[in-house]
Every structure is written in C-alpha cells, then in structure tokens.
C-alpha cells in the first residue's frame, strides 16, 4: 500500500485517538493495539518516513497516558489478593456453585435423616461427643464444649486441623475429584446431624447464632476447599483443547492458589472458635455482627468482587 493511501485510510482514526481518547478501559486497549499495529506496518514499509515517527510518538503518548496513574504493584501479596486470586475464583465460579449445591443438599439430607433417629446422630458425631453435649445441655451450658480447652491451644489445633482437611481435599482431587466430593457430602451430613441434635432440644436458633460465629467462615472455606479439589480433577477429566497434562498443570495451579487464599479465612475462623464462640451468652447483636460480617466478606470477596473486577477489565492487571 502506498504511504499516501495508508495515511488517507487511517488519518481520521488517528486524529480521533489523539484528540478524543477513549475513557473505557476496553476501548482504550483496543485503540492502543490498533495504533501499535499501524506503527509496526509503517516501520516495515516506510521506516524513515514522518508517518512512522508520528505514530511512534502517538503510541508512546498513549502508553504513558494509560500507565501514568497506575500505582506500581510492588507488593506481591497485595497483587495476589487484588487480582490473581479473584481472577482464579471467577474462572471457576461454576465449580464453586457445584460444591455449594452438593454441601447444601446433603446438609438438608443430614437434618432430615437425624430427625427422630438418634442412631444417625450418634453414628455421625460419635457416642462420646453426643453424651458430652447432652450433659452440657442438661447443665444449662449447651455450647460448653467450646470453653473446655485453653483458647490459644484450641485456636492453633483447630487451625492445623482445618488446613489439613483443606489440603486433603485438594490432594484428593487427583482421584478425578471424587474424594473432595465425598468429603463435602460427609461434612454436610455431620453438620446436619449436629444441627438436628440441638434442634431436638429446642436450641436451633441458639445453634445458628453460636456455632456460626466461627462456622460461617469455616464452612465457607470448607466448601471452597472442596471446589479446589474438584477443579484439580476437572482439569484432568476435561482438558478441552489442551493436552491432558497441560490442563492438569493449569488446574493444579489454580487449585493451589485457591487453597493458599483460604489461609487467612482459616486463621480467622479458628480464632473465632477458640476465643469468641466460648462466650455463648454474649449479646445477640454481637453474635449477629460477627455472623453477618463474615457472610458479607465471603459473598463480597469470593462472588461479587471477582465479577465486578472482570466487568471493569481489572483482570488485565493480573
């Protein structure tokens, strides 16, 4: 193409970009890519021309305009929390929904199975635990189990146990995702039996307000851990257009990111269980504040924020 024709064909667009640059991030990115393409063409066919110099200046100016207000992400942890983890979570939202659906379904099954069947409750929770809980209820301290141990010891022991379970779920994903599904089913049935134990004593509301002080974060993290294991198995079973090995490596990377991102959630949940849940007679408003705050964080960070970040084009930073 002759240089004059090349200029005539693109001049109006160049003028538009120079005088009225787009404000939308996606449109701005498109304009920048087009400008760089034009610059590459001009350098190839008219390397010493004024057109090539003009496009080089325009592209440089646009590049500076895009990045001049962007703060450098010098903190890898901040970058991980703001971009990498939400991007990974958003990519697997359907799997998280599947894990949540499995857990919810079998929690309901657990509650229904335990109603009027004490043997189911004892089978899921163990005779010793049920007997201890019934003794505590008879003494007017239905949730006394949370106050029986040293708070610091409980915090560290529960944290270790929860992280171990999450890693177990992740590793179980190697078995084409079956083990994390089984663990989600088992934990949901146990929670259903646990709830039914208190409901039979007329303490269903107290159960929610007390146990879910820590349970909101703990159960949410458990479900997300199960999803991470399923993601690992899914990459092997359904590689798509990638090789099975490459798909498995990518899914393993995503699953590990998710588990790593859950560590602060596990720390906070264990802290609540060790130091806060033991105060079963704390004001209802205090319990609700922690419960609603925890639920808001889970929904906000793991559901709403990744969606909004994607819509704003924030994934371009990741």
TrEMBL record:
InterPro entries: SpoIIM-like (IPR002798). The chain crosses the membrane at residues 95-116, 163-186, 219-237, 258-276, 288-307. It comes from the Bacteria. Keywords: Membrane, Transmembrane, Transmembrane helix. This is Putative membrane protein SpoIIM required for sporulation. It comes from Dinghuibacter silviterrae.
């Amino acid at each position: 193409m002759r240089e004059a024709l090349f200029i005539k064909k693109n001049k109006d667009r160049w003028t538009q970009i120079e005088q009225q640059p787009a404000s939308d991030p996606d449109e701005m990115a498109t304009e920048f890519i087009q400008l760089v393409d034009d610059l590459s063409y001009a350098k190839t066919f008219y390397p010493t021309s004024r057109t090539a110099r003009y496009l080089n200046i325009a592209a440089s100016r646009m590049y500076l305009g895009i990045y001049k207000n962007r703060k450098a992400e010098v903190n890898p942890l901040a970058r991980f929390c703001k971009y990498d983890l939400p991007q990974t979570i958003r990519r697997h939202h359907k799997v998280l929904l599947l894990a949540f659906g499995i857990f919810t379904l079998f929690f309901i099954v657990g509650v229904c199975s335990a109603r009027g069947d004490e043997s189911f409750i004892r089978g899921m929770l163990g005779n010793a635990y049920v007997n201890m809980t019934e003794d505590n209820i008879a003494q007017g301290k239905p949730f006394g189990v949370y106050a029986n141990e040293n708070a610091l010891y409980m915090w560290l022991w529960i944290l270790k146990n929860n992280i171990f379970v999450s890693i177990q779920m992740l590793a179980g994903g190697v078995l084409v995702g079956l083990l994390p599904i089984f663990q989600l089913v088992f934990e949901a049935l146990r929670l259903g039996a646990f709830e039914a134990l208190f409901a039979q004593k007329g303490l269903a509301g107290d159960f929610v307000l007390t146990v879910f002080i820590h349970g909101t974060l703990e159960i949410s993290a458990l479900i997300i851990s199960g999803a991470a294991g399923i993601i690992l198995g899914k990459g092997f079973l359904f590689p798509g257009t990638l090789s099975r090995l490459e798909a498995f490596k990518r899914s393993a990377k995503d699953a590990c990111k998710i588990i790593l991102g859950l560590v602060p959630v596990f720390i906070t949940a264990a802290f609540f269980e060790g130091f806060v849940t033991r105060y079963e007679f704390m004001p209802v408003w205090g319990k609700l504040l922690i419960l609603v705050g925890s639920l808001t964080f889970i929904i906000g960070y793991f559901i709403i924020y990744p969606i909004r970040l994607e819509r704003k084009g924030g994934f371009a930073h990741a």
